[in-house]
Here is the input.
Amino acid sequence: MKKAILWEKKNSFIQCHLCRHSCMIPEGKTGICGVRINKEGALYSKVWGKTTGIGIDPIEKKPLFHFYPGSSVLSFGTVGCNFRCMFCQNYTTSQAPREGRYIEQEDITPEEIIELAKKHDCQSIAYTYNEPTIFLEYALDCMKLAKKNNIKNIFVSNGYFSKQTLGLIEPYLDAVNIDLKSFNPEFYSKIVGAKLEGVLDSLKLVAKTKIWLEVTTLVIPGKNDSPEEMKSIASFVKEELGEDVPFHISAFFPCYKMADVPSTSAETLVKAKKIAIDEGLKYVYVGNIDIERAEDTICPRCKKTVIKRSRYLIEENNVIGSKCRFCGEKINGVFE
Ligand code: SF4
Here is the structure.
């Protein structure tokens, strides 16, 4: 186990400040995420140097569409999560500590992760599969080494990290995709086990930094798929984060404790995309489903296709030096 960071002693408890739960952890117990333990008056991470899996993906799969499009990313994660989403697609690993299930993990040092990224020509490392905030000590050690090796760092996050955590990762984090799962506080409290306002606050904080930001909403039938809710989400993204923040609308498939909920229809997703565009967002995408041309980047000025994608793969890239090749309009993003 690795001595944890961002905690303080409070009588016989330890309060963890990594995420917005601010767990008060008694001796011998873990916080909500199940991977940070109070042992003899100090807090330890149970997941440093242990991964549940490593993959090489196109960066579009994270999804990040405006950050080095077409590049490869080394992805890895650990066990545990500070959320308990009833629709989690990675629940076998994310909810394992909470549910007392044993999961096989592989020992791998930050140095070995960097070497793997280099071996596979990955321009970035993504801290993903489960919430990276909860393995911050491990992630930070990797991020510092990655920076030294000119490899970019990406978080795929639920946005529930604390302000202090953001302060620690900001110097090393190049891009983040944050889930905005709903605009309904009840959805967050009942289905996710968190508070909407914490996620909104994190999003606003990140938008003020130099970290590249994209936002994703998974649309679940009957839970968060009303036109009003999509309008509220899109309006928040535009007004608080920026009209040129890429927004991903993702299809839900029955899973975990929502195995009885149907998949999102193409019709609902196409309508949601129209609502987001009508609200004024410049770059809106539909993913996790095959809908023709729904992943393309359209130039906001001349309306021509500047990046043509199909199932996360780039078919055509007409962005030259951050500008549309056809009309010269700036395409917001981090391009070669
Ligand atoms: S990281 Fe884990 S222990 Fe720390 S506050 Fe969040 S849920 Fe609690």
In short: Residues 227-241 form the longest helix (15 residues). The mean pLDDT is 97. The chain has nine helices and 21 strands. The pocket of iron/sulfur cluster is lined by residues 16, 18-19, 21-23, 31-33, 36, 82, 134 (CB under 6 Å).
